[in-house]
Amino acid sequence: MVDLLRNQPEKAFGTRSDQSRWGRFFELAQSVLEGHRISPAEARQILFTEESELPELVAAAHKIRWHFFRDTVQLNVLINAKSGLCGEDCAYCSQSRVSTAAIARYELVDEEVLLAGAGLACERRAQTYCIVLSGLRPARRDLENLARVIPKIRARFPLRICVSTGLLGLAEAKILKEAGVCRVNHNLNTSRRFYPQICSTHRYEERLATLEAVRQAGLELCSGGIIGMGEEPEDIVDFALTLAQFQPEAVPINFLIPIPGTPLGHRSLLCPRFCLKVLCLFRFAIPACELRIAAGRELHLRSLQPVGLWIANSIFVGDYLTTKGQPPEDDFRMIEDLGLEPEFDVVAGARSAGLSGET
């Protein structure tokens, strides 16, 4: 994939010399901060960046990150609240019906488990508690249980609640809104062109319709995808610009964890420098979003994880759905070494100092 990028002609910024090209990404970042939406040609230029220009690209992306988030980082804790038991054939997923991966399979966990997960999220200084249910769409009983438990979580813990329940219609999204859900996660995952190679049991248009329903219900939108499934660079560009049309509040970028027993279990790891270019693309395309380096950051970014947080401003702390993350202590050490501060701490400090604006 990286070789493909290196061979692409320069399209967005002319044919200037190396010396005169210096600073072009800062110019683009300033334009973005002034309201410019990047074009397909500019998106390609970011992905096709020469290795020698990568430091400038990262610094320009950091300019955008700093404008919106300063030195804060948003932490998230994930609970796999309903595992496996899914009739879909998504090639990346260990919970799909085509997977032979050895995972736990269970129905929606009970109230005590969800409350305990919220407590863990607070202990890990997270602002957002992400409740994920497997399956194509939520069963009515699962929606009713969430609607009963979420107000209890909100009353007991200072957390934003994000839920991921699969495809949603407007009526279902409104139930979640009324229950106190702040944000709904529904990932586009990749481009429209490439999606049929990843899943055949539902259509890309159904995912787009879910994003529309979430917006119509007045909920914040969390939507991202997975890089490294065999897509072409043009698919990443198309995916990023499609997602930019919705301007989600949160954009989780996962790098494929090739899980044995899944159809994509054989995929190789990406170059960490390419992963940084991908993160930069999404920062330029959706500048004000909570850009999250999600699953797979440990495998693909490796020693460049800290550099990723100069571009992104959000991570999961702890484990993912069916795979392990790095120890939370390592995340906190990385955050401290970067001079960043969890937003939970900033908000808590403001409240204790009487600066939150609440009465």
Total strands: the figure is 10
CATH architecture: Alpha-Beta Barrel
Class by SSE composition:
alpha/beta
Distance between the termini: 54 Å
Number of helical runs?
A: 15
| Name of the CATH class | Alpha Beta
**Tally of domains:** 1
Low-confidence stretches: 1-20, 355-359
* CATH superfamily annotation: Aldolase class I
Average pLDDT across residues?
91
Helix proportion: 40-55%
Question: What is the third-level CATH name, the topology?
Answer: TIM Barrel
Summarize the helix and strand pattern as letters: HHHHHEHEHEHEHEEHEHEHHEHEH
Proportion of residues in β-strands:
5-15%
Radius of gyration: 20 Å
Task: Tell me the major beta sheet.
Answer: 10 strands, parallel
**Shape summary:** globular
Summarize the structure.
The protein is α/β, with parallel strands linked by helices and 359 residues long.
Description:
Strand 4 (183-185), helix 9 (204-216) and strand 5 (220-222) form a beta-alpha-beta unit. The chain has one domain (67-345): TIM Barrel (Alpha-Beta Barrel), CATH 3.20.20.70. The chain contains 15 helices and 10 strands. Strands 1, 2, 3, 4, 5, 6, 7, 8, 9 and 10 form a 10-stranded parallel beta sheet that branches. The chain is α/β, with parallel strands linked by helices and 359 residues long.
